[in-house]
Amino acid sequence: MAACLTIGFARADKPGNPAAVSDDNGEYRDANGYPTYKVDKDGKVDFYTYIGYIRYTANCMHCHGPDGLGSTYAPALVNSLKHMNYTDVMTTVASGKKDVTASSDLVMPALGQDKNVMCFIDEIYIYLRARSDGAVGRGRPTDHMPKPKGFSENEDSCLG
After folding, report:
1. Domains along the chain with CATH numbers
2. Are 2 and 63 contacting, i.e. CB atoms less than 8 angstroms apart?
3. Rounded distance, CA 63 to CA 48, Å?
4. Which of 7, 55, 101, 141 has its CA 20 to 30 A from that of 46?
5. Shortest CA distance to 90 belongs to which of 61, 115, 122?
6. Listed residue (57, 64, 83, 81) closest to 3, CA to CA
């Protein structure tokens, strides 16, 4: 997620209640079917939130800043996700977005062909959603649930 996910979506629905209502081998979904996080009372995060942090740091941080807090180059995604649902995020990341005004020229490149992003887009979304909701603090999560069965096979299949 290189340049900017902006909050200027007129049609965007808020992401909704993040409470997990289903669990498919450690991958949680909310009532709308969107990927979501699970954080135990002791702060232990689900594996997808943890990998989301790793993948965000590798692929998005250089523009959007540490922990999704933004930079002089791109907006804070922790704020953007308060106004964007999963579909909006997927569309923006895959297709890109250009927001040109008299005072700025913000460009989010299309990353739909970038396997390092798209193979982990759910995980990145989950991490940013947890950050946006305040469920996960700054920095690398200190503890996480074990890697779910089948995660590595899915990862290998997507990356090729």
Report:
1. 32-138 (1.10.760)
2. yes
3. 22
4. 7
5. 122
6. 64
Predicted pLDDT of residue 8 = 38
* pLDDT, tens only, 49-59: 999 999 999 99
CA 21 remoteness from chain centre = 19
Residue 158 Ramachandran class (φ > 0 left, ψ -120 to 50 alpha, else beta): alpha
Query: Are the C-beta atoms of residues 75 and 6 closer than 8 Å to each other?
Result: yes
| Dist CA 46 CA 83 (whole Å) | 23
Whether residue 108 contacts residue 92, with contact meaning beta carbons closer than 8 Å, is answered with yes
